Amino acid sequence: MNNIIILGSGRSGTSMLTGMLANSGFHLGDDFEYLKKNKANPKGFYEDYEVNTVNEDILKETLGSIPEFIRKQLFPSSTFYRARWLARLSITKNIISSQKIDNRIASLINKERFCYKDPRLSYTLPIWQSVIEKNDIRVKYLVVYREPAKTANSIIRECRENKALHPLKMDIQKALKVWELMYSHILKNYNEDENKNNWLFIHFNQLFTSETQNKIEDFIGASINKEFPEKKLSRATESTDKVSSKTSLIYTQLNKFSLYT
To answer: Can you tell me the distance from the alpha carbon of 58 to that of 81, in angstroms, rounded to the nearest whole number?
Structure first.
């Protein structure tokens, strides 16, 4: 079995993919059920509290923070603590960490056969990789994605249904930008990795096919729960929202890597 990090924006199928691996012998974290099941994820999120907190702290360092009362008054639609899985982080932004954060990551990866999932990892992966390399740990990366507009509309629905996210005033332009930037960071990390064999790209629709399920098993070195994915649980609908040429190009690149047609 290999250590696994699952990458992808929120509402792209990362929870479904992680659920398929949940009973495969991986360490998902000491508190991977702290996010309760809801309409969006009726089978669970499979995100560990400390993994999410580490990533929130990295993004806090990177994006900077202002007192909450000032944010509410002057920047009400900007992301805040625990909502930075919806941050829009420029591809040129330098990701900032600290020795304390690095030590916490080292503790998290000091587990036999771990599998961690968090949308924020799309941004924070370089920090994790730096610690992983220092500790000489082998990790493979599973990237899952789906149509940008479908994902964006699912993000908007999530923000509408979750009262805590109402201040973000999420709309289609913001949601599409989240998708674009997260996968831009993922592709940048992939292109800079000399060992491309450590990466597997999967379109959401491929999760239901036996060919891809077998490919995942070969990739991770373990059996998965092939009955876990249920198409009826997907609330995504076809969208007529137009995406930018840049977003379209990223989606085309992802399809090329996953062999999705």
So the answer is: 11
